[in-house]
Recover the amino acids of this structure.
């Protein structure tokens, strides 16, 4: 490929050499450079790619793309751009032959609901014959290939690599989670989104290595609606107008509000032994009854989003109803049936906003007791621990504090911080560091009519301790506890 082809959608300046040369690979990791590569110098939080120019030259790189003045060997072409992350996104699209242009790309952004909604949309569209790729927090799905995720929104090169694989596998659409970090770091720059979706906004991802403040977080969410044809938004969210104030797309809305284009009415809670769900009627631009095997108001929002999206693919109502009835997502209010006497579930709620939303929802089902088992990750903001402790103390009848990815901190220190938050409430709690033993306690001490939620891990199947990820899947732990338990009424 000619370097000029790679750069055709970019504004750039040639500092030395020329752009009419052949290149073999596009690389942004100096360890992967080979003969004939063009190396994109990314200024990262920890490592600056501009410091590796001599190294990549020795490995055979013929060109570098930079955003600052550098010294490079005379034989090397140096291309200067305003932002190398943005350049990586556009050159990656060119390198893989602009595969996004051959797909209907659906992007979902928001603090909560992204993951569940992506799976709902995928399930519905596949039910009417579309072949749909997925990129998200849990995994990327390309035909029969499943790739565990490292980031909610991967680096731009990886996104276009996935898009190319999807096109080659016969996909005609892709639904992807679009994080605020991904938007801020230009990972999705240049992607022609057919539909962009806004689920909701809460205070999260604000800190030294994420967003500087809530305004920046909100601004980054809004970037998606400058590069999509249609924006579908939660009109009930208090930040809706701020997020869309600079939008350039057509806008449709969903929610409970009379203003919503896709409106939920007549909601009813549905429950049976070991199971919780919700039903409602959608009206406005769609009119039919819906029942979902996932509890709560946020399940209504997630399904309304899926209905709104799929209406633009002309999916018949009966197909949408059928798909929503069986929609399930690993680690998102995932029911694990262990007894008819009580309800047990796993959920990814790992901040105060998501935990409060989850526990408030479950309280609406009037359980005998609401039991919340959770911990907090190490080497993260302590405020999250205080806040989650206070939320659980206020809403749960019993909190079981345990360990969750302590990283390089001591688990007991994290637990002690959580207890400071619980201490502001009258909530009862026990502390059990070992997560399996904490789960054992929750199951063995469960009372008839209890609802138990294991929060924080969700789809994760590991525990990170001192820089090492150890296998730890809560589904496996539950199965082991049930097998070892002497309790008679468990489903084995």
């Amino acid at each position: 490929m000619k370097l000029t082809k790679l750069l055709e959608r970019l504004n750039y300046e040639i500092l030395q050499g020329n752009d009419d040369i052949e290149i073999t690979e596009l690389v942004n990791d100096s360890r992967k450079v080979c003969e004939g590569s063009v190396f994109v110098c990314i200024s990262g939080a920890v490592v600056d790619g501009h410091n590796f120019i001599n190294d990549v030259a020795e490995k055979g790189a013929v060109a570098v793309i930079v955003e600052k003045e550098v010294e490079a060997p005379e034989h090397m072409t140096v291309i200067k751009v305003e932002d190398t992350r943005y350049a990586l996104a556009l050159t990656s699209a060119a390198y893989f032959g602009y595969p996004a242009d051959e797909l209907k790309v659906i992007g979902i952004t928001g603090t909560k609901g992204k993951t569940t909604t992506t799976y709902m949309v995928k399930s519905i569209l596949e039910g009417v014959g579309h072949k749909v790729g997925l990129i998200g927090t849990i995994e990327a799905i390309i035909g029969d290939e499943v790739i565990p995720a490292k980031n909610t929104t991967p680096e731009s090169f990886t996104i276009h690599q996935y898009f190319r694989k999807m096109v080659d596998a016969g996909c005609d659409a892709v639904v992807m989670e679009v994080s605020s970090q991904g938007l801020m770091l230009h990972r999705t720059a240049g992607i022609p989104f057919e539909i962009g979706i806004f689920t909701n906004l809460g205070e999260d991802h604000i800190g030294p290595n994420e967003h500087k403040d809530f305004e920046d977080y909100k601004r980054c969410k809004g970037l998606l609606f400058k590069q999509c044809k249609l924006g579908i938004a939660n009109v009930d969210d208090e930040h809706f107008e701020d997020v869309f104030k600079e939008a350039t797309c057509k806008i449709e809305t969903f929610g409970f509000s009379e203003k919503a284009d896709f409106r939920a009415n007549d909601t009813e809670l549905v429950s049976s032994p070991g199971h919780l769900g919700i039903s409602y009627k959608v009206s406005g631009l769609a009119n039919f009854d819906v029942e979902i095997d996932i509890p709560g108001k946020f399940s209504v929002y997630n399904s309304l989003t899926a209905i709104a999206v799929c209406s633009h693919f002309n999916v018949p109502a009966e197909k949408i109803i059928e798909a929503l009835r069986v929609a399930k997502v690993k680690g998102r209010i995932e029911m694990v049936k262990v007894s008819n006497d009580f309800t047990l579930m796993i959920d990814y709620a790992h901040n105060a906003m998501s935990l409060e939303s989850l526990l408030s929802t479950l309280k609406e089902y009037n359980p005998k007791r609401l039991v919340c088992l959770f911990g907090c990750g190490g080497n993260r903001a302590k405020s999250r621990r205080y806040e989650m402790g206070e939320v659980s103390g206020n809403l749960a009848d019993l909190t079981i504090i345990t360990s969750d990815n302590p990283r390089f901190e001591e688990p007991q220190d994290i637990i002690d911080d959580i207890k400071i938050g619980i201490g502001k409430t009258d909530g009862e709690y026990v502390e059990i560091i070992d997560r399996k033993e904490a789960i054992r306690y929750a199951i063995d001490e469960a009372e008839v009519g209890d609802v138990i939620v294991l929060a924080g891990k969700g789809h994760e199947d590991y525990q990170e301790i001192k820089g090492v990820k150890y296998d730890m899947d809560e589904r496996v732990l539950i199965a082991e506890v049930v097998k070892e338990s002497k309790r008679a009424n468990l489903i084995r």
